[in-house]
């Protein structure tokens, strides 16, 4: 979600989807450039790492990172456009001390086995860059009601920088995808996948699906993060964000056959070029940390992401609040692969 500073890079610098929502196996979507004017962009200002999911109650639910990095918020509306003016409720605030006390990042709301879950990343109040993944649970039918219970940290084989958890179901198995710094690998974060035994616990050894190796993945920082999954046309597509969170931020794509073993890294092919990047002509910079949603017609796929309206940033990009939530149709190429197009201009 951010140009993360691990312990290693902090010293040198001086300082993941809408995967859980059921979707049809095929879709007839308009090209990314068509019908984009149906959504006024930016949709929500100063909200990064946006995640939109539509529940069976007919509401769209929206979570995102706030610039203060101190709380988890939720909105809902009957339409995507309605989220812009929907009431925003604070569901949870950072702890005053200890774990979950700083850098509250990239929340995602998922409905799993009849309960609501929020996956998010957080630092320690006394060590703000000790970023780990955490889960909240709510047994109420209405996520605005009931009690949000802290289920704790998602444990992985390494007690290291970890964030951007998302979950999805494929072939009857629920998976967790996330980003983490793995000891012994010279990168800020790589992408991992593991099956889950319950909504806050992974089972078995994780598979490392990708690490930043291309030039466009290593500008500013060597980052693969913010995974998001969409399943279409006999394939599983996993988008992710790469590089620093300035104008270099962009989306990459991993693709696997729906019949393949998703836990085998060899099942996944990485696009050699970014599939979504800054666009000077349209005035959009650093598009990334996306999720996928379905439009009101129930058929058109949507790309949800954040971007800035200017290239130059004064100081640390993480301190610049103007990463705005944006939505546009996701197109499909004739071969059945997603056509992200370009970030559309403000409208």
From TrEMBL:
<protein>
    <submittedName>
        <fullName>Family 43 glycosylhydrolase</fullName>
    </submittedName>
</protein>
<dbReference type="InterPro" id="IPR016828">
    <property type="entry name" value="Alpha-L-arabinofuranosidase"/>
</dbReference>
<feature type="signal peptide">
    <location>
        <begin position="1"/>
        <end position="29"/>
    </location>
</feature>
<dbReference type="InterPro" id="IPR023296">
    <property type="entry name" value="Glyco_hydro_beta-prop_sf"/>
</dbReference>
<keyword id="KW-0378">Hydrolase</keyword>
<dbReference type="InterPro" id="IPR006710">
    <property type="entry name" value="Glyco_hydro_43"/>
</dbReference>
<dbReference type="InterPro" id="IPR006311">
    <property type="entry name" value="TAT_signal"/>
</dbReference>
<dbReference type="Pfam" id="PF04616">
    <property type="entry name" value="Glyco_hydro_43"/>
</dbReference>
<keyword id="KW-0326">Glycosidase</keyword>
<feature type="region of interest" description="Disordered">
    <location>
        <begin position="314"/>
        <end position="347"/>
    </location>
</feature>
<keyword id="KW-0732">Signal</keyword>
<comment type="similarity">
    <text>Belongs to the glycosyl hydrolase 43 family.</text>
</comment>
